[in-house]
Amino acid sequence: MVEVHRQSSRFIQVATAGAVAYSVLLPLLNLHRVATHPSFPGHTEEAAVVTACYLPLQVWIVRSKARGDRTPGQAWGLVVVAALIFGAMPFIGVGWLGALCPLAGLVLIVIRAPWSFLTYAALAAVPAPAAIYAFDQPEWAVYFTLAVLVYGTSLSVPIFLIGAVRQLENARRSLADEAVVRERLRIDGQLRQSVGPALEGLVAKGQRRELATLVEDSRRTLAEVRRMVTRYQEVTLRAELETAATLLSAAGIETNLILPEGLDGEVPDALRAELRCGLSQLLENQNARHCVIKVIDRDGTLTAEVTSG
Length: 309
Description:
It comes from Actinomadura rudentiformis. By secondary structure, the protein is mainly alpha-helical.
């Protein structure tokens, strides 16, 4: 379980760094196109200034969304980025239509559906009429339309995947915590059923000042508590298998238990070693999605088989 959590955390860190780097790369590629392509002469300085103004804000939005944050500042940041990009478009020219690509990705990750999809479609519809009628360069209409669709989607999809992994990680933690709580409640219930009546009797007898009986019953109850604590330290085989199945399910591995009838005794040391070895190998297998834990009784000797698929 710990190894799965570490792998998930590493994936989130690497994916977040990759998404941030990609969000920086898109504006820089567009700036390079404006600076070097012969169809877009004379506007490199303006494009560089506007890019330097909106890029830090864009990086902050991508990074905060990848971390799972949702704040009003993200929406206002999107408004500022959009204002800078559209405000500079008449001055820089048709090459600046490439700045709509990262803007489309920000729209998908910041605005809630279905408004995000409508705004995304509206942005994808801007390059064609702008290139044809505003800048009189129709040869760029199809290119920038496809660029907005492709690069905008490629920026948003990793953010959505990172969010899904975070939700899965939170679900695993909740399941593990729930398994611990259920085990504590089970122990509490058993203590109430076994020790509770004895303690109530002690209180009643103590109120009647039956000192000799009180001492004797106190010793008996203490012995019972010690036996129960010993049983909890030496967990039954069924309880240990059920706990292992719950933790494996929390790790995303569907688990089936096949147990012989009347399996209520303590766990033999050899069998416990086999189970722990099998479970360790299973958790190290990144491709494991389901497993079967089978306990076989061979003439009173218990053996365990752990198979995965």
